[in-house]
Specification:
5 helices; alpha/beta; binds zinc ion; six-stranded mixed sheet
Length: 154
Amino acid sequence: MKDLTCFCLEDINFMKIALEEAFSAFHQNEVPIGAAIIYENTVIARAHNLTETFRDITAHAEMLVINLASNYLGKKYIRECTLYVTVEPCIMCAGALFWSQIGRVVCGTNNYKRGFLYTGIKLHPRTQFLSGIMKKKCRNLMHQFFLLKRKNHP
Ligand SMILES: [Zn+2]
């Protein structure tokens, strides 16, 4: 796992797509996390968290887009792809990303409670990792969602 500190305009544009997905999740009462996978500058997969809708704890945005991208490309390794995800992946998704050998992972905001970064779990050595793109928007959406949840279910 290589850490990168710089990002470009392209990263912001693709993160906006992941954010659109996160907003869709929010309006469906799903934890607002969205993701998109890009191959040769094209979005080949986009999805948001659907664990409530599918009643399936594996239906995280990242799992769904990995699956869609593999199907689209017809292969299990998606080394030439970049994942944009609004929130740092959990350990399950980091594991799936490891196995996918994805080329690059770009995330919006860190997730200190449920993210993989502080668990010692690593992405694949060939995967570049970058965090902090549109951080405030990604984080605010999560905060808003959990505030509303607590308000409705004290
Ligand atoms: Zn996950």
